[in-house]
Amino acid sequence: MRKMRPNSAPWRAAAVLASVLLVGSMAACGNSDTGGGSTDDGKITLGFSQVGAESGWRTANTTSIKEAAAAAGIELKFDDAQQKQENQIKAIRNYIQQKVDVIAFSPVVESGWDTVLKEAKDAGIPVILTDRSVDSADKSLYKTFLGSDFVKEGRLAGEWLIEQKKTASGPVNIVELQGNTGAAPANDRKKGFGEAIAANPNLKIIASQPGDFTRAGGKQVMEQFLKANPKIDVLFAHNDDMGLGALEAITAAGKVPGKDITIITVDAVKDGMQALADGKFNFIAECSPLLGPQLMDLAKKVHAGEEVPARIETEETTFTQEQAKEALPNRKY
Ligand code: GYE
């Protein structure tokens, strides 16, 4: 298992090299006197199916992928599936038909991919999973999975809460806003958090519902939670956006976020970090969306038939309110 920060030196070096090559090839294109063949010949076409545009994380991820493709001289075909598996399957089938060199996608849910992945394999097109994984038993259906350890993120969130509540003598009522049903980060963050808080029987999840990773979803479900439960001590939201939506519901209910209700989220996008620095959130487990440069590097490697690690894990950290204040000025997303 290889761990590398997306902005670490080797990746930066790769990005610089890629842009040098790109500029070089563009210069060659512009010079018709060279007599050489089309420089487009060697250009890799990558078909990418994105989940949607549901969150700040997703927007940053899409930007990272588009910028990295341009920098690496890769022709990107991009499709936004609007959080629907059927749209992703359609996009992947289109890419197969168009005979792209490499297919990459971030699966909206974990199951139900075997048929389309088999079609890509039969067509000889390598597939890279990025951000989220699939539950296919046949690991030969894709080359690698690049992304975070979502179970760990949930566990880090739960461990922080255990530490905060270690002296609690009575019940601590927790509500949970889950990501979209069936998504790897929803399943895994729930699992990691649940396992960590099991260490203290006072900590109880009294309600847990999907808010689909959106602000609107977070707000709406939090309103229901507040109506149904007079005593809520903690909110664990599977991403910043749902936590930000929930803030509105909490304030409207006359409670003070970050004080009356402890709020823990995942991602650490700018708006989430601002809420943390402002004392409205209490803790964030980071999840980096800056996967573009690594993805382009992998696309080149699998296209060249090179072996790549089966799993590449993104390195991430956690933030308290104080740490958020320090990190905010340099936050890239
Ligand atoms: O946490 C959430 C987004 O798959 C890691 O999807 C991603 C998650 C991210 O909508 O904000």
Which secondary structure elements does this structure contain, and how are they paired or packed?
Layout: E1 2-4, H1 9-30, E2 45-50, H2 56-72, E3 75-80, H3 85-97, E4 102-105, H4 114-122, E5 127-130, E6 144-147, H5 150-164, E7 172-178, H6 184-197, E8 203-210, H7 215-228, E9 234-237, H8 240-252, E10 262-267, H9 270-277, E11 283-286, H10 292-303, E12 311-314, E13 318-319, H11 321-327
Parallel strand pairs: 1-12, 2-3, 2-4, 4-5, 5-6, 6-12, 7-8, 7-9, 9-10, 10-11
Antiparallel strand pairs: 11-13
The protein binds beta-D-fucofuranose (GYE).
How would you explain this protein's 3D organization?
This protein is α/β, with parallel strands linked by helices. The chain folds into 2 domains: 45-148 and 289-316, Response regulator (Rossmann fold, 3-Layer(aba) Sandwich), CATH 3.40.50.2300; 150-287, Response regulator (Rossmann fold). The protein has helices spanning 9-30, 56-72, 85-97, 114-122, 150-164, 184-197, 215-228, 240-252, 270-277, 292-303, 321-327; strands spanning 2-4, 45-50, 75-80, 102-105, 127-130, 144-147, 172-178, 203-210, 234-237, 262-267, 283-286, 311-314, 318-319. The protein has a 7-stranded parallel beta sheet, with helices on both faces. Strands 8-7-9-10-11-13 form a 6-stranded mixed beta sheet, with helices on both faces. Helix 6 (184-197) links the parallel strand 7 and strand 8. Helix 1 (9-30) crosses helix 2, helix 5 runs parallel beside helix 6 (184-197) and helix 9 packs across helix 11. Residues 11-39 have low confidence and may be disordered. Bound molecules: beta-D-fucofuranose. Beta-D-fucofuranose binds next to helix 2 and strand 10.
